[in-house]
Amino acid sequence: MRTGGRASTTRRRRWGRAVAGPAGAALLLLLANGAVPAHAAGRPDAAPSGSRAAVADTERAPAYGRGSVVSVRRVDVLDRDRVREQLSPYDLNAPAAEYGVVTYVVVYRTIDAAGRPTVASGLVAVPRGGARTQRVLAFEHGTTVEKVGAPSGERADDNRAFPLFYAGAGYFTVAPDYLGLGLGPGRHPYDHAASEASASVDLLRAAREPARREGVRLDERVLVTGFSQGGHAAMALAKALDAGADPRLTLGGLAPASGPYDLEGVMLPAAMGTTGDARAVNLALGYLVLGWNAARPLYRHPEEVFLPDQVANVLRLFDGRHTEEQILAGLPDRREALFQAEFLAGRNEAAGRFLAAMRENDTTCAWRPRVPVVLFAARGDREVPFANTESCARTLSARGADVRVTDLGDIGHYPSGIGSAPLVLAWFADHT
Predict the structure, then answer these.
(1) pLDDT tier at 120 (50, 70, 90 boundaries)?
(2) Which PANTHER family does the annotation name (predicted)?
């Protein structure tokens, strides 16, 4: 694990601030009017990402050996002082680090976003010297474009620090890389709820092997948290667990932070309606389009979405080997210089499928948890606006959930993740 300084806040930048122009306004208007072009449904077999076909795979009994271990590698054995040293560059200095931690990288069998067999990886962090039966905590990480930036990777930075923080507090911590990150093949389906859930459930199954090696028993109740994209992933995982995704696992608690729960109602309008760096919006939209297309076809040819002179550039930049800074530097500074006008205006099949996929991925809060829920977020967050959390809370409450919102105040996005971590521990200690 790298310890040379604090993680870059640019990796947490999701939609940024973009200049609202005619093309952007057209896409926003299409969403606001609820108008998906009639031709956008396309062929019956070309369902968008997040479709019921994909969600159903998350809910059935394991197939393809899902959750079975391909490989387990012990990475670090850290005493308590070393854990605290690893956490200090990230301001995770709370006295929660009471235990040493043993970390494992696990490669395991799962399904891809279309329900086909694949493998994924993740980090498992086991407290040393803790209780014989340990409580299980799933941590879902934030936006990461580089494969090695996922929790199991060599440049994980804060994506490794958060699991260490929770494990140091005595929780058996499972941190999925998601599909296509870490050691997983292919492209990452960014913000794709069904695959976030399936990859996480299957890592929880695979994590029983590190537990066996460390001689600990695992509580069947899973405490779920996550930050940024991980807030969205945490809601998706918790929803799957509550629906019985694995008969040996139950949802024990839910406390996500600063998640983009409402792409259609909050994130896209915020991006299209502000001024600033359009490259950040190009990154987020490009990442979504490419990732969701890997899940379920949005287009037959990438030229339906991207300008012909940008296709090779986009595919090169989003190959999982470039950093966020490199991608931002390589993208045009205007949406109209990256995307086809027909796509931005919502006049082709790709646009309709993209908008339908967005709506289907905006359903992670549409359920009634059987446990109390707290949503952490900051009113000062300009990257993932507080309105996301308000929208999620309204949706949960309308279904009868016991949910509360904790406003972390006038701080930014990355600080909201750091500030929420000790509060997550306190919530789980008091309410689970």
Answers:
(1) very high
(2) LIPASE 5, PTHR34853
Residue 334 one-letter amino acid: R
Q: What is the pTM of this model?
A: 0.89
Which helix or strand (DSSP H or E) is residue 226 part of? strand 217-226
Rg of the chain on CA atoms, in Å:
20
Q: What residue segments make up the domains of the chain, in order of their start?
A: 1-432
**Would you give the end-to-end CA distance of the chain in angstroms?**
31
Structure tokens at 54: 């994909």
Burial (CB count <10 Å: 0-12, 13-18, 19+), residue 5 = exposed
Residues 6+ apart with CB under 8 A from 284: 14, 15, 16, 271
Give the per-residue pLDDT at 277.
74
CA distances from 108 to 207, 230, 235 (A): 9, 20, 22
DSSP labels for 49-62? TT-HHHHHHHHSPP
Per-residue pLDDT tens over the stretch 317-374: 999 999 999 999 999 999 999 999 999 989 999 999 999 999 999 999 999 999 999 9
More confident residue, 8 or 247: 247
N residues, the chain = 432
Tell me how far CA of residue 215 lies from CA of 55, 208, 295, in angstroms: 34, 10, 38
| Amino acid letter for position 107 | V
What angle do helix axes 278-295 and 308-317 make, rounded to 10 degrees? 80
Measured over the CA atoms of residue 200, residue 254, residue 368 and residue 357, the dihedral's sign is negative
CB-count burial class (<10 Å; 0-12, 13-18, 19+) for 187:
buried
